[in-house]
Design brief:
The protein has 360 residues and is of the alpha/beta class. It has 2 domains: 97 residues, Beta-Lactamase; 239 residues, P-loop containing nucleotide triphosphate hydrolases (Rossmann fold), CATH 3.40.50. Helices cover 34% and strands 25% of the residues. The protein contains 14 helices and 13 strands. The strands form 2 sheets. The chain has a 7-stranded mixed beta sheet with strand order 9-8-10-11-7-12-13, sandwiched between helices.
Length: 360
Amino acid sequence: MAKIDAFFKLMNDQGASDLHLVSGQPPAIRLRGDMERIKYKVLDNDDLKAMLYEIAPEDKVKVFEETGDVDFGYEIPGLARYRANFFMQKYGCAAVFREIPSTILTAEQLGLPAVVPRFASLPRGLVLVTGPTGSGKSTTLAAIIDVANKERKDHILTIEDPIEFVHTSQNCIVNHREVGTHTKTFSAALKGALREDPDIILVGEMRDLETISLAIEAASTGHLVFGTLHTTSAAKTVDRIIEVFPTSAQAQIRSTLADGIRGIMAQNLFKRVDKKGRCCALEILVATPAVRNLIRENKTFQIGSMMQTGKKFGMQLLDDAIMELLEKRWISAEDAYMKSNEKSRFRPLLKKPPTDFTDA
């Protein structure tokens, strides 16, 4: 048993999402969204480095020594998997570990709207899950992939950095590829994927122009592609994708994206006030012909209005989902205000509205 495993056991027992180990500071965990110190000595750089190197593969240690940061996956059988990031900072080395539960929760267990698992049955197209870091994007995608794995008879290929949720092949054949271990880059893996007879491709992160371009191409050539982006709304997701491309190519990519897009989910996590735990608010865009036409004609500013009138298709705005959680008294008005898109809607609900000079 590695020395660091005791921290992972504590983290798991407490229900924490992240473990932070930093030279010159005591360890800390993120518990229900907040950082909490662990009662332990201040970590010395040499001791921490020895602790970290005990669990890191040799090739990852070499990358870390050369570049100052590295990502990889670490697993404790019977406990959980962890997404690890080592990095150098002013006082020495540091590391952050995100726990990835060994059990994949279903859409029902997560309380996701009924339309979300239906994305798993699409024959082709691009489906995106967006939101800030730590908003549960991977968990939502894992639930959707789990539905496909149980209900379809296809080949599912995941490309991640590092591998997070591990799906055991059921009705589908599932292959997991890790960037840096099984392939050099997301784009290289996507190029190879088109020759590997996949029906469903999961791209862990659409980081650059080439990866985004290849994902859209795969969706347009008969594959069902799932991916993630760091955006806060469906309309902004469309804009972000198009803005990645050179101005001269934007009209063409707008048309290609309009043809391929099938759905966008923008989500955020909230600390529950009625009991321990967290809950998720989702904005859901279903790419109906009318929505795709707005994208094609560069009228993304009208997508919000289209979502308000598209509830029969399962569409909802993020602020409507947040308001629903607030009315159930699951979350605080302060949290709702901080994470909403249209803050003026939630400001009257606050006892002491904060002064935000950026709203002026």
